[in-house]
Amino acid sequence: MYYRSRGYTAFTIMNTIFLCLLAIMCILPLIHVLAVSFSSRAAATANIVNFWPIGFTTDAYVKTLGNGKFLRSMWVGVERTVLGTLLSMLVVTMASYSLSKTSQKFPGRQFYIWIFVFTMLFSGGLIPSYILISKLHLIDTIWALVLPMAVSVWNMILMLNFFRTIPPELEEAAHIDGAGHLRVLWSVYLPVSMPSIATLSLFSMVSHWNSWFDGVIYMSNPDGYPLATYLHSMIVSDNMSRIGVTSESIANFSNRTVKTAQIFIGALPILLVYPFLQKYFVKGIVLGSVKS
Amino acid sequence: MATYWRKTWPFHMLLLPALLLCIVFQYIPLFGAVIAFQDYQPWLGIKGSPWVGMDHFRYLFTYPDGKQVIWNTLIIAAFKVAMNLLIPIIFALLLNEVRKMYFKRVVQTLVYLPHFLSWVILGGIMLDILSTEGGIVNRVLESFGLDSIFFLGNGHWFRFTVVLSDVWKEFGFSAIIFLATLVGINPALYEAAEIDGATRFQQVKSVSIPLIMPIVIVVATLSLGRILDAGFDQILNLYNPLVYSHGDIIDTFVYREGLNNGQFSFGTAVGLFKSFIGFILIVISYRLAYKLANYRIF
Fold it and tell me: Is B127 exposed, middle or buried (0-12, 13-18, 19+ CB in 10 A)?
């Protein structure tokens, strides 16, 4: 057997070390930022913190969570995530039910599919979307962040592929008992597809929590920024001050612990749902790319 | 017709909300893109603004920064496409050699994580660790007696940083598809090679690599469609005026010129140009993927 040879044993040792290093590299930056956020201000400013807090304190978090602007952004972020996910799942589930039917049962299915898929390939672009949102008077409302993202064609494809694996006998039996399509969707399809609905909801939540650019363009008032957008504006001003474009360099720099605390709080919800996400996304990806 | 509706109306009704949202937020902006051929003024609207034909498209190529922006986009995207193919394949092959399932799972959990964090978070982290005023990366460089590097303030280093950090974020996630293919290879093939006296290295060379080649070709051709996407989210969070000459890409250019400087028509024209080329490339790449590897999505 090849794995008993001496050469292969040497390779295994090297390989294990290399993969360990690679894996650690992927989270080391996050650990460093976490360590800085729990360090004392003096230690952070003196640049002596590595991967463990020096002069442990939760001051930065107390300060961050006492910041009204930060809290307001966090609330907007939560609001858009909850509202956006609910709306998106509702719309996508309903549409996927129809699209999961065969072309014999639902002639016209192919036409709808192309309407949706085309939007994945071609879009009008940033400025026409902005003009539309402002014409609809949605600027500075939460709907500007929620409605444009509601129809996720990718989620729709995953969902309809899942619906197709449900045996048609279940549906036929329900029809014989006199159930309409809405009833079938509600009482037959939904209960058996709870795992995939949960998965797609998680995907939707992550993309809502992470999206920041729509906040930049659709919110003229920073009070309406979701957390991701708030963090972006903080990063931009930080970036500018580092290269000396603005002169708030020193004031900013002493805030390093607060900044890292804010970044970590922004990442926290993703880190919390990540174990659940990881359980499902491999399946989803393989399904989405291998299946029709 | 009447029987068609009688039989299928619930399907149409269930599709209605998605269809309406899709038409309003995707198709209307598509038609709104006609302002690329106008000199659009917000107070005149689309109906009242004068038509100027292809002027804005011509302007893109005579604009002093136009060619530079297109070049930046291509070079950054090309490096990303190449590295995001090569590194995940190598990683998948190495991880596939690991026989301890527990270790394999821990490595996977850690390397997939950055994919789920947004560029806002990662941008904030990078700004902190790459800082020239005591960022941890430069501290490590200095401890080895090297000069500190202005990663985000020097054009050449900026491109390098953008490509490297993108690979760092995505390589684990991109490897999933290759790992799934490797796991699915029939063990009998390796056993047969083993009986013929092949070393493990020869087995990888003659069994694993040929068998993942079709999926490699698919991923490679499909990524051709992204050759104009150099990473808007990432660059908008990392760049600054010092590196516009090397780091400004089509998307960030559209955002700055079009929205921030109020050149709505010009910005739309540039965006449309990019969208159009991207569309052609996607169609070509799907055809190629079908021809080369018999792969179809729809």
Answer: buried
